[in-house]
Amino acid sequence: MGGAQRGTRVVCLPGDGIGPEVLAVAQRMLAELAPDLELEEQLFGAAAIRATGTSLPDDTLSACRSADAILKAPVGDPEFDAADVRPEQGMLQLRAELDVYANLRPATRDHVDLLIVRELVGGLYFGAKGVREDGTVFDTCEYHPSQVERLVRRGFELAGLRRAHVTSVDKANVLETSRMWRRVVHEVADDYRDVAVEDMLVDNAAMQLASSPQQFDVVVTENMFGDILSDLAAAMTGGLGLAPSASLGDGGPGIFEPVHGSAPDIAGQGIANPAAMLRSTALMLELAFGRAGEARALEAAVDAALASHPTRDLGGDATTAAFADAVARTLAR
């Protein structure tokens, strides 16, 4: 689709396992809802390692940098689990290169409607690490106040569009990084007097999410805590197979992706659930392109298909194609 206007270019990363299958469903729906979007596929993950020796080739990174949004399927392949070069390394590198520091993980079901805003490019996953001569292995959690400030400010802004309540999750009774985190949160809170803020230790937050998730509106937290708590929130609201995400920076393209894995055990069988991929596509339509109407239509069509054509992971027997057809029929009405 060469010749698309500026502001309409999406780089699609098919990923591994069921990734190409669920991405194809998303591309089909985008052709219906937003035919002006230019969709361009690039190598990424295990397929890229086999072809180029790296999970994030230079051509792919260059294409992502110049895109308006990135729609990414899951990566991961058992062939590379113990290898020096792994698909997941490309994922971390892409996040860092694009500086998509704010990972948005919505979780909704029945009376639960919360949004976890997780810092994505700092902390334990990106700090100094290594092996000492005596065999000790270390990973370091490091944060600069500016990294915390921009993430927390994004959380307060989002809370202002929702129910005006921020829960900041840390481990300030133990960790120096958490004590700095808490200080910065309250400095930022002074600029958002209409938004209530509370501090919660991460162990209590896990318990509260499991027992009383309806109390939360927007949760802001650091990288590893957010990684764990967002998966817990997903489990409380339907499971990882339904959970979307958006990773946003300041001005550059965002990355929109399901949070589930590549499920290599069912790849190629036509039974993958594309709901999370489609919900991530809806987030892309709204947040990257300002097309809230199309996003709501896609979300509603996915919800209808989940009710009428549940896939095997949800106790039904619908194939990926049958689920996609159900979504398309709703969109066509």
Task: Explain this structure.
It is a single chain. The chain has 2 domains: 1-100 and 249-333, Isopropylmalate Dehydrogenase, CATH 3.40.718.10; 102-239, Isopropylmalate Dehydrogenase (3-Layer(aba) Sandwich), CATH 3.40.718. Helix content is 42%, strand content 18%. It is built from 11 helices and 12 strands. It has helices spanning 19-33, 46-52, 58-65, 87-98, 145-160, 176-189, 202-211, 223-236, 275-287, 292-308, 320-332, and strands at 9-13, 38-41, 69-72, 102-109, 112-119, 129-131, 137-139, 165-170, 196-201, 218-221, 244-248, 254-258. Helix 9 (275-287) runs antiparallel to helix 10 and helix 10 crosses helix 11 (320-332). The longest helix has 17 residues, at 292-308.
